[in-house]
Each structure stands twice: as structure tokens, then as C-alpha cells.
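Input (structure):
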């Protein structure tokens, strides 16, 4: 969770608006705007992941933690270790298209 918070802070820094009065060329300004757009999308994704991680952390003591919401079967330990925010097993995630 701390690593995710640090990533979000870094992305906030890189997604600051490009000042219109900066003395940079047109192409450089377009590159900066494109880079900001990419940073904004990454920031949004990182914030969603942090929320999911925090929700998963809050459910660790729940008897249903680690059970697939789709089929009710246990989510493999390896999947939970790689993606602790996972609420679906691999099979159900593939069916929903969310890997």
C-alpha cells in the first residue's frame, strides 16, 4: 500500500498542467500535453488500485476473503499474492475479461 501511495504522489507531480506561458516550442508543448494525459490515466489507475488494496486489507479477517465472488471457489494463493485486490479466480476473471 505504501508503494502504491508513493507511486500516486509521483504521478501527481508528473501530471501537473503545462503552463501556457512556458517558452517551449509547439511540438514540445504537444509532447508535454500528451505526457500529462498519460500520467493522468496512470494516476487514475493507481488510485483505483490503492482503493482495491485498502478494501482487501480490510477484509483479511473476513471468512469469505480469498473466495471468488463469481463461483465461490478459493482464489489460488499465488494470484492473491500477486494481486491481493483480486476478487475473482482466474477462470471467472477471464470470463469477465478483467484478467
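Output (sequence):
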Amino acid at each position: 500500500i505504501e508503494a502504491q501511495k508513493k507511486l500516486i504522489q509521483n504521478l501527481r507531480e508528473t501530471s501537473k498542467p503545462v503552463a501556457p506561458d512556458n517558452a517551449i516550442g509547439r511540438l514540445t508543448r504537444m509532447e508535454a500535453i500528451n505526457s500529462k494525459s498519460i500520467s493522468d490515466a496512470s494516476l487514475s489507475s493507481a488510485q483505483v488500485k490503492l482503493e482495491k488494496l485498502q478494501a482487501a486489507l480490510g477484509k483479511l479477517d473476513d471468512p469469505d476473503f480469498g473466495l471468488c465472488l463469481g463461483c465461490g471457489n478459493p482464489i489460488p494463493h499465488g494470484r492473491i499474492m500477486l494481486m491481493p485486490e483480486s476478487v475473482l479466480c482466474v477462470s471467472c476473471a477471464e470470463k469477465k475479461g478483467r484478467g
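Notes: Helices lie at 2-14, 26-58, 77-82, 90-96. The CA atoms of residues 23 and 29 lie 9 Å apart.
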